Amino acid sequence: MMNIKNTIKTIGPGILFAGAAIGGSHLIQSTRAGANFGMDLLWVVLLINLFKYPFFEYGHRFTAATGLSIIDGYFKLGKTAVWMFLILNVFTSIINGAAVALVTAGLMANLFGLEYSISSLTGVVLVITLILLFIGRYSALDTLMKIMVSILAITTIVSVFVAFGSDVSLTMSESAKPELWDAAGIAFLLALMGWMPAPIEISVWPSLWALERKKQTKYMPKFKEALFDFHLGYVTTTLMAVFFLSLGAFVMFGSGEEFSNSGIIFSEQIVSLYTKTIGEWSKIIIASIVFITMLSTTLTVFDAYPRALTGSLKKLFVNLKIKSQMLNISFGIGMAFFGILIIVFYTSGLKSLLDFATIVSFLAAPVFAIINYKVVTADFMPEEYRPKLWLRILSWSGIIFLVLFSLLFIGTKIV
What pTM was estimated for this model as a whole? Predict the structure, then answer.
């Protein structure tokens, strides 16, 4: 029987994970899936959440069992695993950081009626993000994310039920759906699954946040308490993915309206999904909620990637004298700088950048999945905390699924 007081102390990393996922994959890719295909891709959303589940759980599992971050587990496997993680994360951190900051900038322009270039607005978002992180660090991030995820979740659920029961809900038309199994359709599937519920490499984040939560509360959670925190966040992300998919399907599918490639117009369309169901009176409220939620997601990305990169670098270079906080700041600034360069020179538009970022995440997923599996099944993992047989079977099913879909995508590019 879990102690309620101690469980409340534990809750945090799982909610931060949910906030990172809801802002990225859900608000953007899930809604697009519903708008383009109606409810047809519900099975994809549920399946990818199932197949990725073990690899996110393993980050929590290892930290709860050992009191160490899962990066320590990578190091125990050998330096090669840490190097692979570091190199892949340098690349994905810049791409994913640029993508979420770009969406946040569009929402900021929509909320405040700003008419500056999207690259300039993204720069402003990144400066705000870095300042907030340097001042507030983990405690401010933890509190803000809990509030905003709760408000957005309630608002989205209400909007879906209103849309389902009103004339806004549209009749599903087969002719309105694009082809799913051609090259473009498969690319969209990978884009949807790459960030659904999140890139697998961010399984490291809750592990690092759990250690920060321990410093904040002075309490080291028991194994069951830590997994409760994880499941609270993961179940929330899965349910919210279904609701965002439904919102896109009920409000946009079959209407002839498509999401724009312009960041600012795209942001207006996201807000209109809610105002079409709740009412125009709610526009300023919804715009504020969505903007702050996406800003929170940008904060988690720019908090967690530097933590992960710093942790990896410290493991590889044990004599490195630079303090962790200084490395975190340096990595955050580097992500912002190169992210701006991508946005300035990548002229294909918002949707193309998001699809590129999510496809890269999907193609990298099998590597991170295998590494996480090896950590929790290794000899250095306490035997009583190693995954049960059903979880091992699900893990290998997930790895095979990720590899086969990656090969399918590569095949469409070769043919």
Answer: 0.87
